[in-house]
Amino acid sequence: MPFDAPVDPLTGMPAARFGLYLHFPYCLAKCPYCDFAVAVARQVPEERYANAILAELDARLAASPELRSKPLESIFLGGGTPSLWHPRYVAQVLDGIAARLSVSPGAEISLEGNPERADAERFAGYRSSGINRLSLGVQSFQARTLKALGRAHDAAQVELAVSLARRADFPVVSMDFIYGVHGQSVAEVEEDAKRAVALSPEHLSTYALTVEREVLAVDTPLSKQLKRGELELPSDDDVVSMAKVVRDVYGAAGLHRYEVSNHSRAGFSSRHNALYWTGGEYLALGVGATGMLLTPSPSRYVNVRSPEKYLSEVEAGRLPEEGREVLGAEELFAERLAMGLRLVSGVDWEAVCERYGQPVEPRRAEVARLVEHGFATLTGGRLALTEKGADVHSAVCARLL
């Protein structure tokens, strides 16, 4: 069941133009690579958090009432571990959102879950609450890799989770994987890819492990180990080989790459994630969540990362923001071009320049050089990176910005 969303003319991607991200911060344990806003908790304040989310939404709509009438085309419950949240509270929140915003009938509504939290009753509850896309945090089928990543499940639990998801009639099942892990081999990554496609998912997201502190939001146990010289990661050549084998295995199974780290069957690309890559607008609710609003003027805000502070701020009737950044034309241009170049379809780079008042001519020679040297293609005005170019995406963007 592909979801409704307009096609972004600059990239050709079906993408939500207005979405909502809801962050559920609670976990039973924190993975050593995770830099998200998460809190380890044995007792999760499920009802209190649901009430706080809707209270924050009320406060944001009071500040931006024009958002009430915009078609909401995607909702994403991420974390943390949203599958720790009882379905009754997920239903409460989704019903509350629908009562306050204009949710499109064909909206994509995703929930992240961990395989070890899968059970038939819980999955059925999420499905009946309105969740129509389940994203499982698998990361690997290999016991050694799962241990290195601090994951609590095993391969059998992954297969059971997918089976239960199918029984619950989720229209879309997605899985997340990581490669480039310490101790991991190219052969193990290939085996993970083959086992993943054998489960017939509609969507797969596969990311290279990020450990370097300078690209993380906060220090992680692995980033500290790397800094102390205690962590040996696979070589750059091995990581490139891992990325290639993932593309080859997924592609042969009909899951085609549509973004640097994402593959899907035809029609099943993520409408919500595409919103981020195509300059859409999104509300964000919950601990540590980041949102971007384009009206009345473009700005990005981030909520406090402490659950206790978040709850106290919201319950006191205050917006739980840690900071807000006004986005000018140059910032919007840089993000739109860089994100667009992550997409296999590419982006109409001249139209992006014109939209944000940036000069075209000084960049034309650089675009020609990228094409000449095999880093990009230019078709119908749309600039798209080749696999060679995607491997150096940041460097390409730096030359164009």
TrEMBL record:
Localization, UniProt: Cytoplasm
SUPFAM superfamilies found in the cross-reference section: Radical SAM enzymes (SSF102114)
Keyword 4Fe-4S in record: yes
InterPro entries assigned: Coproporphyrinogen-III_oxidase (IPR034505), Elp3/MiaA/NifB-like_rSAM (IPR006638), HemN_C (IPR010723), HemW-like (IPR004559), rSAM (IPR007197), rSAM_sf (IPR058240)
Keywords noted in UniProt: 4Fe-4S, Chaperone, Cytoplasm, Heme, Iron, Iron-sulfur, Metal-binding, S-adenosyl-L-methionine
Pfam families per UniProt: HemN_C, Radical_SAM
Radical SAM core domain ranges (all copies): 12-252
Family: Belongs to the anaerobic coproporphyrinogen-III oxidase family. HemW subfamily.
Task performed by this protein: Probably acts as a heme chaperone, transferring heme to an unknown acceptor. Binds one molecule of heme per monomer, possibly covalently. Binds 1 [4Fe-4S] cluster. The cluster is coordinated with 3 cysteines and an exchangeable S-adenosyl-L-methionine.
Protein's name in the database: Heme chaperone HemW
Organism whose genome encodes this protein: Myxococcus landrumensis
Taxonomic lineage: Bacteria, Pseudomonadati, Myxococcota, Myxococcia, Myxococcales
This protein's encoding gene: hemW
